[in-house]
## 1
Amino acid sequence: MNELKGRKLVLGVTGGVAAYKAAELVRLLGKAGADVHVVLTEGGARFVTAVTFQALSGNPVWTDLWDPRMANNMAHIDLTRDADAILVAPATADVMAKLANGLADDLLTTLCLARECPLLVAPAMNRQMWESPATRRNAAQLLVDGVELLGPGAGEQACGEVGLGRMLEPEALCEAMIAFFQPKLLAGRRIVMTAGPTFEAIDPVRGITNSSSGKMAYGLARACAQAGAEVTLVSGPVSLPVPAGVERVGVRSALEMRDAVFAALPGADVFIGVAAVADYRPVNSAEHKIKKSGAELSLTLTPNPDILAEVASLPQPPFCVGFAAESRNLDEYAEGKRKAKKLPLIVGNLVQDGLGGDDNQVVLFDDQGRHPLPKAPKPDVARAIVAHLATLLPAF
Ligand code: PMT
């Protein structure tokens, strides 16, 4: 997916052991469509050579304030004039101190001082350096100056100590850059969402479930979080990574899902039911594994509560969004469910389009009518749903 297509990024690499991870970061940013221009400090070049970054970014690497390759010898200005952001990763304690105090004694710090674009910084240093009063002051000053700090994370460090100060992993930094450029259409909103299938136990090893992969819900949770919302994802059993900034509550059955939803609901502005909740569960779940015999076996099922319908019929419900998975008559059935559950918005999809796969084709139904969206990868469909949802939410 080209989520950074058309973005020009200047990546500053300074002298920390984590500089080796910056090589992978360049690869990931490039894979996401970004045009990456690396600026290497003298310290950074001691860990990874310019040749590596040039090969991975496909662009010249810059190290010298007086580089004659720059047409007018103004590298400190020209490099960022049409950049969408500067990211310094890894950022040593030394470079943070320089940035916080407006020092400009090499190409990277001069570029940062002369920039017109946003600056993001991914600290990487020993835990004591991170916790030192000087670095705390510098980090606080950078925040006041509008610089975005990405991390640091906690864990084992190159020096063998354990604590805060590790640079975030390249995947997390790439995700953070993608999130940074998303319009904050849902800033200040709290969203509770359901995801995946439920599993209704027949005995300790068997159960009733369905083939929902959770991809649509996890994509939507990621899109909502990247749009600035606080997201709680009540998820049935799926094995997908939890999107950055999303709180996941794991459940198995519809009854557990219902309890977790109602526990998370106070204060929520929006509830989105993406889960393929089992409509029925066995009346009795056997304590021990049911033994095979030659005789017929009947299973008696009882209806599960309809979580979405219950939430939507609260005296003061959040803004409720349903999903409708149909195998035919999409418009009629989806709109019928929207009316029956009194939902302002429902997302209809045919199971053959959306269940299990990476793409989906959906139609949004609201009081204004039907709004078909083109078939696209689920993360793209999720962003389009977010954009539509944002237009329907009441102002604060
Ligand atoms: O997980 P994927 O593989 O990515 O597939 C995505 C999807 C097809 C599962 C998703 O796009 C989707 O359509 N989810 C809803 C599936 C569904 O169960 O639809 P439904 O028509 O049975 O239910 C209507 C709505 O009521 C849904 O919002 C559902 O979450 C909710 N519901 C249903 C039953 C129930 N007991 N409680 C509920 O809250």
## 2
Amino acid sequence: QAGKWGVEDQMNFLITGAAGFLGSALANRLAREGHQVRGLDDLSTGNPQALSPEVLFTRGDVNDRPKLWTLLQDVDCVYHLAARVAVPESILYPREYNATNVGGTVSLMEAMRDVGVRRVVFTSSGAVYGDQQEQPLSEDARPNPRSPYAVSKLAAEYYVRTIGDLWGIETVSLRIFNVYGPGQHLPPSHPPVIPNFLRQAMRDGTIVVHGDGSQTRDYVFLDDVVSAMVAAATAPDIGQRVINIGSGQETSVRELVRIILDITGSKAEIINNPRNDPGVSRMRADIRLAQEKLNYYPQVSLETGLRLTLERDPRFKGERPARSAQRG
Ligand code: NAD
């Protein structure tokens, strides 16, 4: 089965963006399975405390090629996650998004070529699809990016595939949909929807829904995404491919709020803000290619994943007294 290697199959990995939400979960999982894991992160948003001690961590920029040359020695597979990831911020600072997300990817591919690394797994995004009539979104839909972030991911996909083709590097770009789970960043401005709503629910605060809440997203739990990424390191016949990683389900923001209120018992106030851009109207991943190529079958439903997030993320603990305690 994908991701289950014996000790004799121990591999050497480099993960860029290793101190981030997805990177740290992946690094810890690979290290736990007995692999050698090197992590690179400039700590612009990452937290090295999230990494287990077995992960060999280096602080540095993904554009620093001499550093990459050193870190890439004897590496079997690179996971390239380092990126700026906030869509609204990318609208304000497109040049920075281009420099890190596109420039950083080109630097990495060049360094991989120089050192002679065999495979790279790149974390692209479902955002490259933008608004599409046809759902679920299949990999051959024509991309329609709506933000500099989405453009940067699409451009990086092309660089990864093209440089890989030219130099015989196996590449796979995973178009990942809306990931959530313990450890997700919760920045003060433009926080991702799930940790933001969970925090407001746990405080009996205010949940602000952009638009009327009918827009849907494909929310996928962290552990399922990590399993797909692990499988992508060794799966045969995935060279130069683009593969969707989502849950395969779509949930409206309104429905998400209902589930969150239900599992937390929260008395949070719900406000609809019609002036805030709700973004694309529908997002649902077609995951048949991932099933075929990566043996990827997501295991965690949205409700279970939200419960696991509340249980495992200490930031949500103790924010709100248990329901029984409140009555006393
Ligand atoms: P994250 O911000 O937690 O991780 C990105 C990491 O990259 C951070 O730790 C940051 O410090 C680091 N970084 C930024 N610029 C760097 C640079 N110049 N050099 C080295 N490191 C740098 O975000 P995440 O949610 O873990 O996302 C990881 C990857 O997955 C990103 O490429 C993102 O585009 C992609 N992705 C995430 C989602 C999601 O829902 N979380 C969905 C689709 C794609």
